[in-house]
Request: fold
Amino acid sequence: MCSLLSCRNVSFTYRGSRKIALDRVDFSIDQGEFVGIAGATGAGKSTLVKCISGIVPKLFKGQFSGDILLRGEPIRRRRVAELAGTIGTVFQDFEAQLFSTNVRHELAFGMENLCIDRETMQRRIDEVVQVVGLSNLIDREPQSLSGGQKQRLALASVLCLNPDLLLCDEPTTDLDPIGRRELLDILERLVASGNSVGLVEHDTERLIRADRVVVMGDGRIVASGKPAEVLSDPEFCTYNGLFAPQMLALFSLLGLRGHPLSVEEAKEVLDREGFVPKSGPTGAEVPEPGGAPLIATEDLHFSYTPNVPVLRGISLEIRQGDFVCLLGQNGSGKTTLVMHFNAFLQPGSGRVLFKGTPVEEIGPARMGRRIGFVFQNPDQMLFAPNVFEEVAFGLRNYGISERDIPQKVSAALESVGLAGKEEVDPFVMTKGERQKLAVACVLACEPEVLILDEPTTGLDAQEQIAMMDLLTTLNRAGHTIVIITHSVQVAAGYARRVVLLDSGKIIGDGTARGIFSRPDLLSRTSLIAPPCVRLGCMYGLSALTVPELARSLERRVQ
Amino acid sequence: MSLAFYHPTGGFFERANPVSKLIGLAAAFVPPFFADRPVEVLPYFGLLFSAALLARAGGNLVRVYKLMILLFVMSIVLWSFFYKGQTALCTLGPLVIMKESLLYGITIGIRLNCFVLAAIIFLTSTPIEDFTYGLSKLGIPFAVSFALTLAFRLTPLFIETGQAIVMAQKARGLDLDSGGILRRIRHYVPIIVPVLASGLRRADQLAVALESRGFGKGKKRSVVSEFRVTWRDYVLLSVVLLAGALMALYRFV
Amino acid sequence: MRELFTMWQNTRMIVMTAISAAAYVAVMLPFKGFVIIPGLTEVRPGAAIPVVLSFLFGPATAWGAGFGNVIADALGGMLSPGSLFGFIGNFFYGYLPYALWRAFMGHKNPVLSGGKGWLVFGIILVTSCLVIGSIIGWGVDLIRLAPFGALGPIIAVNNLIASAAISTILLALLYERVGMWGLLYFQILEQGGVDEEPGPFGRKAARVGGILCIAGAFIAFSAGLIISCEALGVGYGVTAFASGTKGTMAVAGGMAPGLLLILLGAILL
Reply:
């Protein structure tokens, strides 16, 4: 039988690059199949997708060899635009896929290019908005939509072209958990109704529902097969930039066979195998830091536009040496809250104090040396010709003498693991390195508190672990750390204290263990606890990580 | 943040054909040139003002009234210098204010405000897609009018990015408001570079996403919304032409 | 100047046009800059953007700067007959820097080309700023919106200050990086198989065109200034024909020869 699409012995090297991006890859997707593609940053996933849709080598030049067949026909001679009706692609950056200032025109754009008649256009638009759940937003400006809605619009506009094969290149990376869930649910429904989908995705908890998973590394396919089998080895996963699905990882630690895909399945097997919780505490309880209060907010209210409150009475105290995680959905007010800490925003009512002094008396300029901010996207601050100048920029702004700068720069680079990279151009660094450099820039000014907005977004598993380990080390060295995240895994794995926000209010504040042992709290924010936490709860355990859970389960002696 | 003036009202102007609105806008710019004295241009200003109210552009007028006053004052000041008059009206220190210069400045000031009104009516009632649709129908190639649409779409995105970057750099101690003129401009380097870089990182993505949606497949395209010519278009164009004709008659006959 | 038209077949160049325009507006609108005369004139850092982007994206910046100006007018509620001249003026402001540089210096890095390079760069800056001042000032004077004597010099000087202050720094930070990403205009055009040698009539003709543009800029701008000063009553009586006619069409007529030189030169580039 002939596959819908197959790549035979495909290799590609980008022009001007020495590294081979794809190395003799054989890959195929059958009609109606759902194939997951995973791997570390730079493994070649994106290049593979670009080859299939003809973008490589048509729009990105380089050395290409091999054959790509669509229903047995080679696609080499066809232009990207000609393939548009056959192979649809959704990309990571939703902002770069929307070209119109109105949802209806956005949906029509592709069909207009393919010269489809007006009645058909209208019919397809009506169908597709139903599928992606955008019917009530048809006359809106894309700019006014949330990230998740924008990505669904990008998907919808591709679906309007009625492609035989749908490719999605990390469509969920920039989305929050709700947006991610909604998009993946739509993709699964599409597969259920007979569509063929190729999905590049980091979230292995979702990939286990694919028909087949392909793991790539260094431009090659290193594994391919049933998701439960391919992803069952945690070491293999981490090596390839993935977090192993937690239930599979747990079974592998417990030495159990079987590949449970859900928490319920895992519970069933564990019960059958006679596992029970150990007596005694689940893990070491972290002591509350006894440091002096650094930042305090008192009944803080704030709104950008009248009658749309963003913060509704926040009272919070952050102590010296703490590692606080502000957890909540997009729009819960996390970023707005921290913007008050160094007087970027003025409270509508209430007060913000730094060591007992109202921050507006200190002023944003001087607060900058006390509270260091690392914004979500490191690219929004990097500009200098090399790493040294980049780190020195802040120091110079604060009037540090030229004599002391080299030493402070190298100390900061040393502590983030970028020592000796002074001469490197930040623009050629990887996303993970740029993120670290952003931390170094802020660290160099020796702030008392370090605030990071979504420090793990867009990083693969290895990079995420490196980033969070770096923050843990800095915290042990005495830095007070506040991170903003919507990743429950990050909060569970690293924070000492979790502050749960929902629509501008604090709905939970305590140790990570305390917060995650109360599923009712999380469900109010429509975040979902990591599988191991949920499984632990079924046993009455408050385990935060897979190893913790594994340690606190034992076989009942019969 | 809302950048555009357009807001859907479903009124007369919004339902007119974009092509006739574009022609109407261009034509509406002409009559003020037939007037050399304030009295001659005022009725036209009144006409446009009532049209603006009909287009429910009141809210937008509130947004630009400062600009309108500013234009008016600047015209009087500038033309008092650059337009030669004969009749001295009064002296302000070393300056002699001439009657003709003053009247000319007032005329130009009203003329400029006529342009503002015409533009506001157009912008209030025309979404960008209709605007570029009109341009295409007037013979502008699709690639060109599309680039303009895309620029409109990207502008608020770039402005947002710019604001985030300003925030990020201020957090690193950047002080935009210190120093002399050259230093102050140079303070913007750490802002402009990331703004451009973030745009450039998107450039390839945009090109790729465009082609994957069939952009550039062939010369022929279809259009999702087609506009017909209705009574509105005849009314719109006749009113503009009539006003122009009357003013031209008054001026030249 | 062929590439101004052939670029429309290249998707990346179309995207670059939109990006140039959006970046121009995004830096121009919110950052108010240094006010010299409140309400009338201020030096905005954004005024340097078309010059910088011209070296990077070439023809896309010419169109982008023009579009950016139209968008800024539309967002400010100031779409007027003057917008047409704003478009043309900004178009030349985004067109001349790369086109002149290419005619005299080829595809060399504009900030790493030694003494001769700096000289050419300086001349390009002055020429482009005079041209945008001349075109917009001439246009608004022609339709009697504002006198050339006020607007022309203001635009030219403001743009010159802004671009002299940061264009070299920005190019030093951007040129090589954009080259590394393969997004310099000649890289894109070459990838798309478009021949982009200077000028429709060869390199020599392009250099002649460049000189015409430079000369035209100075001639047009000084003519405008002299005639306007006449109207101010501080002239030297060199333009006898201006005084009799209240200066109505004097600026328009007097600047026309210089502007025609610029146009002719631009076609040869």
